[in-house]
Amino acid sequence: MSFQEKYWQYSLFVLIVGLGVTIVAKLTPFLGGLLGAATIYVLLRGQMWYLTERKRWRRSLAASLLMAEAVFLFLVPVSLVIWMLVARIQDIALDPQSVVAPLRHAAELLQERFGYDLWQESNLQSALAMLPKVGQWIVAGIADFALNLVVLLFVLYFMLIGGTRMEAYVRDMLPFNRSTGRQVMREIHMIVRSNAIGIPLLAIVQGIVAYAGYLLFGAPSPLFWGVVTCFATIIPIIGTGLVWVPLSAYMALDGRWGAAIGLCLFGMLVVTHVDNVVRFVMQKKLADTHPLVTIFGVFVGLSLFGFMGVIFGPLMLAMFIFCVDLFKRRYLEQDYKPS
């Protein structure tokens, strides 16, 4: 290769890297929507192939139908949950006493049982001062989620339209031969399905089981706390205990010792172990993702992508581990034979 050709090659590489870094930096606010579109595309690509190749539908018609399916199955339930949380926040903003009264009651019960007074004026003022900040943070997060939702729908439609050409282009760009490239694409598909289906499914199942327990033992606002339990499942290690432990303590302070003990036992023996049962069932259908990948992936994802990182963090970590394992098998193991 001549000096001039090397110059062109390296210059083109630098130009690609520079433009790529700039574009990624500017698209960072929409990263959740882009990753969400890619994730839902992986889940719907089989249906798209069936409609266009087997049924001979036009790609625009098939994409429109699958967009409606995505909205109905994925986005409407999420929007309803967010609407419920927003309504709760609005109620608190319009009537702060709805929060202050239960807190005062809990503090009085605590003082009556243990003689320690938490209900001091400074504590009250600090708690009330935090409410607007928490509300602003939640509203800002919801606005960011809505923006990324629009980006998700827009990008998803065009990914469904041009999915075959897009996948072929990505496969050709992978630094592997054709056989290994197909294996990589299959692994990516399996990992995406495992995280995009497994994590929300686990959260929903634990939330439903916890909601049944809240109803059974007479916990206050069982539906609201059941939804909160769904979100609490994403928090590593402690998870749902952040919800049912304080509820049990509140019921115990209120003198309902039987219900409090029952709810606590239900949380430890049923809600917590539902995680293991659901994972065991999903391992037969989806990729066997190690729990540590989920735990550390959530830490990474939340810091990088916010709420959307609940799914994309474990996905990114799983992909990293897969690439490391592929490198080990292909280049480090002496008995590896390339396809």
Secondary-structure topology with pairs:
Blueprint: H1 3-27, H2 31-54, H3 59-94, H4 97-114, H5 121-161, H6 163-173, H7 178-216, H8 222-232, H9 241-253, H10 257-285, H11 291-305, H12 309-332
Helix pairs in contact: 2-3, 2-5, 2-7, 3-5, 7-8, 7-10, 7-12, 8-9, 9-10, 11-12
Q: How would you explain this protein's 3D organization?
A:
Helix 2 packs across helix 7, helix 7 packs antiparallel against helix 10 and helix 11 crosses helix 12. This protein has two domains: 142 residues, no CATH class; 153 residues, no CATH class. It is built from twelve helices and no strands. With 339 residues, it is mainly alpha-helical.
Sequence of secondary-structure elements: HHHHHHHHHHHH
Largest sheet: none
Q: Which class of secondary structure composition applies to the elements? A: mainly alpha
Continuous helix count: 12
The count of DSSP E runs of length 2 or more, i.e. the number of strands, is 0
Rounded Rg:
25 Å
Compute the average pLDDT.
77
Q: Percentage of helical residues?
A: over 70%
> What number of domains?
2
Sum up the overall morphology in one term. elongated
Low-confidence stretches: none
Q: How many angstroms does the end-to-end distance come to?
A: 29 Å
Report the portion of residues in β strands. under 5%
